[in-house]
């Protein structure tokens, strides 16, 4: 028996993954009555998490959709914090690391204050703000064009500054992680910046909560196999993790 919030979360994920769903499909998927599904859909529409249609619901997501930073910051916060803690375990004193802009990488920044000898480069205003008073960490910002939706610096100036460095580890955020279509994001400039981040790192670690799995956005960043390691929360399906591992990608499930 699912709790109400867990049931609603599964409805949103099912609709996002399949773009649409009927009341009957959701009733069978969740093992609840159709009247319960209809009530949940009404409340989820009011929360602007999906759109109801005659007989079901459709996703608000599309390959071009991009939620604003405040909209994403508190979503699946516990999962993001677990992913961040695992990521920090992979950092060693003396490392130079690159933090992509994102709500999960912000959680990494918040966990870095116990280190005494690391270098951090980031294109994230939020990560910079988090680390600005840490005298034990050398922090660099890439500069570039600021995207208000993601609070990230992107574009040719950002890429040029990244060409000047080499790092031990890049911690990469993503909007979508699909086994066939790879790592994707809605914005071309962000995609190009992420590709540059991959190219300057000895090791690339992808961070993805389970809501990103199976999702495809407008611009491709890289194939899944270009990642050295993926950190994913335990909301991922066994099938997805198994297939990702079979592709030769190291996975940490948290």
UniProtKB/TrEMBL annotation:
CDD domains membership: HTH_ARSR
Keyword Transcription recorded: yes
Domain HTH deoR-type: residue ranges: 4-59
Taxonomic placement: Bacteria, Bacillati, Bacillota, Bacilli, Bacillales
Alphabetized InterPro entries for the sequence: ArsR-like_HTH, Carb_Metab_HTH_regulators, DeoR-like_C, DeoR_HTH, NagB/RpiA_transferase-like, Tscrpt_reg_HTH_DeoR_CS, WH-like_DNA-bd_sf, WH_DNA-bd_sf
One of the Pfam families matching this protein, by short name: DeoRC
PROSITE patterns named in the record: HTH_DEOR_1, HTH_DEOR_2
Protein name: DeoR family transcriptional regulator
Organism, as annotated: Paenibacillus etheri
UniProt keyword Coiled coil present: no
Keywords: DNA-binding, Transcription, Transcription regulation
SMART domains attached to this UniProt entry: DeoRC, HTH_DEOR
GO molecular function, one term: DNA binding
